[in-house]
Design goal:
Blueprint (H helix, E strand, L loop, with lengths): L1 H15 L3 E3 H6 L4 H9 L4 E4 L2 E3 L5 H9 L2 E2 L1 H7 L12 E4 L14 E4 L11 H12 L1 H14 L4 H10 L5 H6 L7 H12 L5 E6 L3 E7 L3 E6 L7 H16 L3 E6 H6 L1 H13 L19 E2 L2
Parallel strand pairs: 5-6, 9-10
Antiparallel strand pairs: 1-3, 2-3, 4-5, 7-8, 7-11, 8-9
């Protein structure tokens, strides 16, 4: 009974310290070595590395990062916060101080970031994670994650200003270009990539008889991007086909792309869009059959 009380007390102290604590912190809080041993044996604490203990109820990526010798970083932080990130592989990214020591552990596939960053006991800040994404995964992945953070309302105006101040000058325009209305990272990727090609888009457009569509290029070419899972079921696929047919009846042409195309086969997506532009199929009266132009569309931006 006493050992259970000791274990519970040690675990409670660790949780009060943020879920992870050094042995010295626990000792100062009144937890002695015997209590620590009982807590680890009883499963109330996990010894993630020599001298460091963690609450076993912490999410697995955080405990893996601690076991590796650092704290959660980069896309792993954003994924934990429910933001849209790429790549999808859930490899844990770890931030370590310049004088730190990486610790290999069973099943270790961690990606290391050597940064002198202020952080909590378990992860880097949201701004630092976004900056790490830009350096680690590239500008497109950064932009998609940034727009996801804005859409979810987790990046404050102050945080955005800090991000803009700290990011490299060459990437600062991405912070200025980012908006809050992207429903998915796929929309962000398509918009930023077409912007680089000098192709302007209207976003979140209301089309008569169809409803809101992701993008309209020119005045008659609809671009839609579908997530990984939400279009695998037959009823949802049928709904999209009906929308496309109604759009066609109103004089629109539709190009629809899924996750695999946007993320893994972008050259094909680009070629399809450019072919429509070359043939003038995005402009009223220039289609193959001189279709009368659609009317009444309006965009939120």
């Amino acid at each position: 009974m006493r050992s259970e009380r000791w274990a519970g007390s040690a675990a409670a102290v660790c949780r009060a310290l943020g879920g992870v604590a050094r042995r010295e912190q626990l000792i100062r809080a009144g937890v002695d070595d015997r209590m620590l041993r009982h807590a680890v044996r009883g499963g109330g604490l996990e010894r993630v590395r020599p001298g460091t203990y963690a609450d076993p109820d912490l999410p697995a990526p955080i405990r893996i990062a601690l076991r590796h010798g650092g704290v959660l970083a980069c896309v792993s932080v954003l994924r934990m916060r429910g933001l849209w990130v790429m790549p999808l592989a859930e490899i844990v990214h770890v931030s370590l101080p310049p004088n730190g020591h990486a610790r290999r552990h069973p099943g270790c596939a961690c990606i290391q970031h050597w940064n002198a960053l202020e952080c909590t006991t378990t992860e880097v800040s949201l701004v630092d994670a976004l900056l790490q994404v830009c350096g680690c995964q590239g500008e497109d992945a950064f932009f998609a994650a940034l727009e996801s953070a804005l859409h979810e309302g987790v990046l404050s105006r102050t945080n955005r200003a800090e991000l803009r101040r700290r990011i490299t000058e060459s990437a600062r325009w991405l912070v200025d270009f980012a908006r809050r209305d992207a429903d998915s990272g796929l929309e962000s990727l398509l918009r930023i990539r077409l912007h680089r090609l000098g192709i302007p888009l209207r976003t979140q457009v209301q089309v008569p008889g169809v409803g809101r569509v992701d993008f309209v290029l020119g005045d008659r070419l609809i671009l839609e991007v579908d997530g990984r899972q939400n279009h695998e079921e037959a009823p949802k696929r049928h709904r999209d086909l009906v929308r496309d047919a109604v759009a066609a009846a109103h004089g629109f042409d539709t190009l629809r792309f899924d996750y695999a195309l946007v993320v893994h086969d972008w050259p094909l997506v680009e070629a399809a869009i450019l072919a429509k532009l070359d043939r003038g199929l995005h402009l009223t009266g220039r289609g193959a059959h001189g279709v009368a132009g659609p009317r009444g569309i309006r965009s939120t931006r």
